[in-house]
C-alpha cells in the first residue's frame, strides 16, 4: 500500500450537475494515502459535440500528473478523431493512444514515473460507449438489475499475460515485471519502451476495451469509480447500496460521499483495502421526468428484492427445520439400532425376543429354541415381583400353527449359551428349576 497517514483525510470534493436527461453527482476523498492522485470528469454536453455526455474517472499511481492531464484533455482527443462521427468505439480507442503519445512527447510528463487508469462512459443519442484501461470500473442499473460495463485489466488475466510475455515482460507477484499491478494504463512509459511493437501491443498499453449498449427508459443509473471502491465492495453490492440510497430520496453527490465512507477502512492495517484514494460518479437517468420518478422505481426494486430475500430466507428456514426433524428421526432410529446392536451380545431366540440373564429359566430358553412362537404380538418386558421371584409375561403362542424353523447358527448360539449357564453353582440351578416349575403350573 505504501506510506499512509496516521489518520485518514476524509474531507471531500463533491460536485453536482443536472439537465433534463441526467442528474449527476461526484465526489473524491484522499483517505489514508499521503496524496490525492485521482481525477475525474463529468460533462453533460461536450463542446465539440453538443448533446453528447462524457463521464470519466482516472485513478493515478506514482503521482497525480498523468491523471490530471487525462482529466482535462482525453475527451478532446476522442472527439477530434476523424472516425468519431462514424465509429465512436474506434475513436475512443485511438483517442486513448493519442493522449498517451502526447504525454510521451511532453518532456515534463515523459519523465514522470506515474500512470493512471481510465474508465470513460460516453453517451451519444441512445447509445452508450464504455472504454476502459486499468482496474477502475463502470456499472449500470437497468430495470433494477446489474450490467457490468467494464472489465478489470490485471496481469494475471490470461489474455493480458500473453501480451506482456510477447512484449518481453513477465508477471511476478501478480505485477508486470514485479512492479505494476495493472496491465493497461495511461503513462507508465518505463514499461512501454519496446520500439519493435505498436503502442497497443506494449506490455503495459493504453489501448482500451470498449463496450456498447443501447440506452432505454429502463436504465436507472450508472456508477463509475476507482478501485478504492471495488476492492471493498462487489459490483452487485455497490448497485444495491446506491439503489437503496436513491430509494430514500438522497441526491447523487451525497450518495457518492456515503459510498466512500462505507468503503473507508477503520484503520490502515487492512492490507490496503479501504485505504486507497476514492473517486465516485453517480449518473441518474431522468428520461425527461422528475427525480422522484427514479426514486419510486428504486423503491419498487428494493421492495421486490427484500420480498425475494424474505422468501428465500423462509424457504431456507423450512429446509433447516426439515433437516433438523430428519436428524432427530435419524437419531431416534440410531438409538433403536444401537439397542439392537447391543442386544446382539445377548442370546436371540426364535421369536425375535431379546433375553437377558434376569428373566426366564434355562429350560424356558431351551424350549423356546425348539418351538419358537409364531405370534407377531408385542412382547412385554420382563419384570421382577416384590418377593424377588422373576416373572415373565410373553405373548401367547398358537400351538396349532407349525413351529418356525430356527437357523442352525441361532441354535448353536443358544446352545453355547446354555452350556455356559450349566457351569453355574448348584444353588442357582435349583432356583432356576423351582422357577421353571412355578411357570409350568401357571
Q: In a nutshell, what does this entry contain?
A:
By secondary structure, the protein is α+β, with helices and mostly antiparallel strands.
Task: List the keywords.
17 strands; 442 residues; Phosphatase 2c, domain 1; alpha+beta; globular
Q: Explain this structure to me?
A:
The chain has 442 residues and is of the alpha+beta class. It has a domain at 8-151 and 184-302: 4-Layer Sandwich (Phosphatase 2c, domain 1), CATH 3.60.40. The chain contains eleven helices and 17 strands. It has helices at residues 65-79, 88-105, 107-110, 158-166, 227-230, 235-247, 252-263, 291-343, 362-370, 408-421, 426-441; strands spanning 4-18, 22-33, 38-43, 53-61, 115-116, 118-124, 127-133, 137-142, 145-148, 171-172, 175-176, 186-187, 209-214, 219-225, 278-285, 383-384, 390-391. The strands form four sheets. Strands 3, 4, 5, 6, 7, 12 and 13 form a seven-stranded antiparallel beta sheet that branches. Strands 1-2-15-14-8-9 form a six-stranded antiparallel beta sheet. Helix 9 runs antiparallel to helix 10 (408-421). It starts with a strand and ends with a helix. The relative contact order is 0.11. Its EC number is 3.1.3.16. Its cofactor is Mg(2+); Mn(2+). Residues 309-442 are annotated as: Disordered. Keywords: Hydrolase, Manganese, Metal-binding, Protein phosphatase. Pfam families: PP2C.
Amino acid at each position: 500500500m505504501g506510506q499512509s497517514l496516521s489518520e485518514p483525510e476524509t474531507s471531500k470534493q463533491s460536485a453536482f450537475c443536472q439537465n433534463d436527461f441526467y442528474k449527476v453527482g461526484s465526489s473524491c476523498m484522499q483517505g489514508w494515502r499521503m496524496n490525492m492522485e485521482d481525477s475525474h470528469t463529468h460533462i453533460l454536453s461536450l463542446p465539440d459535440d453538443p448533446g453528447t455526455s462524457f463521464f470519466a474517472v482516472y485513478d493515478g499511481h506514482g503521482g497525480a500528473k498523468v491523471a490530471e492531464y487525462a482529466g482535462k484533455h482525453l475527451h478532446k482527443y476522442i472527439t477530434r478523431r476523424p472516425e468519431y462521427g462514424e465509429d465512436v468505439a474506434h475513436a475512443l480507442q485511438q483517442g486513448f493512444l493519442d493522449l498517451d503519445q502526447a504525454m510521451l512527447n511532453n518532456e515534463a510528463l515523459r519523465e514522470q514515473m506515474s500512470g493512471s487508469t481510465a474508465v470513460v462512459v460516453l453517451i451519444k443519442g441512445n447509445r452508450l460507449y464504455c472504454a476502459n484501461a486499468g482496474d477502475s470500473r463502470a456499472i449500470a442499473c437497468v430495470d433494477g438489475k446489474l450490467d457490468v460495463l467494464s472489465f478489470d485489466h490485471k496481469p494475471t488475466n490470461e489474455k493480458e499475460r500473453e501480451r506482456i510475455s510477447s512484449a518481453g515482460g513477465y508477471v511476478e507477484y501478480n505485477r508486470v515485471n514485479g512492479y505494476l499491478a495493472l496491465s493497461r494504463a495511461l503513462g507508465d512509459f518505463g514499461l512501454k519502451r519496446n520500439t519493435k511493437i505498436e503502442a497497443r501491443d506494449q506490455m503495459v498499453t493504453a489501448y482500451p476495451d470498449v463496450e456498447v449498449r443501447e440506452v432505454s427508459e429502463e436504465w436507472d443509473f450508472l456508477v463509475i469509480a476507482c478501485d478504492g471502491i471495488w476492492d471493498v465492495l462487489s459490483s452487485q453490492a455497490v448497485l444495491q447500496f446506491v439503489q437503496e440510497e436513491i430509494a430514500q430520496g438522497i441526491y447523487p453527490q451525497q450518495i457518492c460521499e456515503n459510498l466512500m465512507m462505507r468503503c473507508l477502512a477503520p484503520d490502515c492495517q487492512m492490507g490496503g483495502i479501504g485505504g486507497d484514494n476514492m473517486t465516485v460518479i453517480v449518473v441518474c437517468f431522468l428520461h425527461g421526468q422528475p427525480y422522484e420518478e427514479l426514486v419510486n422505481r428504486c423503491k419498487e426494486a428494493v421492495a421486490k428484492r427484500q420480498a425475494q430475500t424474505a422468501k428465500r430466507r423462509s424457504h431456507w428456514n423450512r429446509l433447516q427445520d426439515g433437516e433438523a426433524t430428519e436428524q432427530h428421526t435419524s437419531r431416534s432410529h440410531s438409538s433403536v439400532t444401537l439397542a439392537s446392536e447391543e442386544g446382539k451380545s445377548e442370546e436371540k431366540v426364535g421369536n425375535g425376543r431379546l433375553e437377558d440373564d434376569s428373566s426366564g429359566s434355562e429350560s424356558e430358553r431351551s424350549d423356546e429354541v425348539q418351538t419358537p412362537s409364531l405370534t407377531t404380538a408385542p412382547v412385554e418386558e420382563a419384570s421382577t415381583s416384590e418377593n424377588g421371584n422373576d416373572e415373565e409375561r410373553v405373548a401367547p403362542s398358537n400351538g396349532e400353527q407349525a413351529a418356525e424353523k430356527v437357523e442352525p447358527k441361532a441354535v448353536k448360539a443358544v446352545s453355547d449359551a446354555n452350556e455356559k449357564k450349566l457351569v453355574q453353582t448348584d444353588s442357582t440351578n435349583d432356583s432356576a428349576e423351582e422357577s421353571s416349575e412355578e411357570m409350568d403350573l401357571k
